Amino acid sequence: MVRNLVDQAAESWGLSSDVRHLGRLILTELTTNACRLYPGKVIHTWVATPRHRVGEVGVWDPDSANLPRIVDADEAAETGRGLFLINELTGGRLGWYPSPRAGKVVWARFGP
């Protein structure tokens, strides 16, 4: 479902297929993290384009206390590499902030 959201946005904004695929990967990873950490809770996702040919995706979750951490990828680990990979793929255009009402937003920008 989140992949379709990226596809529709990329199509309407004329983003390249490379940017589209990267956005799909990133939003899927961020959404999966939130769903895994907060099962049964409402999670919000979005796709935006703050600048021409650049995509931005974000995920809101209800927990403002549990902030994301980028840790070095352990080759033997089966989990824990997602934010590290997103950070690498986006050139460091990854972040988070507390939501004004509750929870937090994790976002990433991708593209040229």
Question: What this model shows, in words?
Answer:
By secondary structure, this protein is of the alpha+beta class. It has three helices and four strands. It has a four-stranded antiparallel beta sheet, with helices on one face. α1 (about 1-15) packs antiparallel against α2 and α2 runs antiparallel to α3. It is globular. The protein starts with a helix and ends with a strand.
A few lines on this structure:
The protein is globular.
Average per-residue pLDDT, rounded, comes to 87
- Provide the β-strand percentage band: 25-35%
Radius of gyration over all CA atoms, rounded: 14 Å
- Discrete helix count: 3
Q: How many strands, which pairing sense, and closed or not: the largest β-sheet? A: 4 strands, antiparallel
Number of strands: 4
Low-confidence stretches: none
Describe the global form: globular
Q: What key attributes describe this structure?
A:
alpha+beta; globular
Strand and helix layout:
Blueprint: H1 2-13, H2 17-37, E1 44-51, E2 54-61, H3 82-89, E3 94-98, E4 104-110
Antiparallel strand pairs: 1-2, 2-4, 3-4
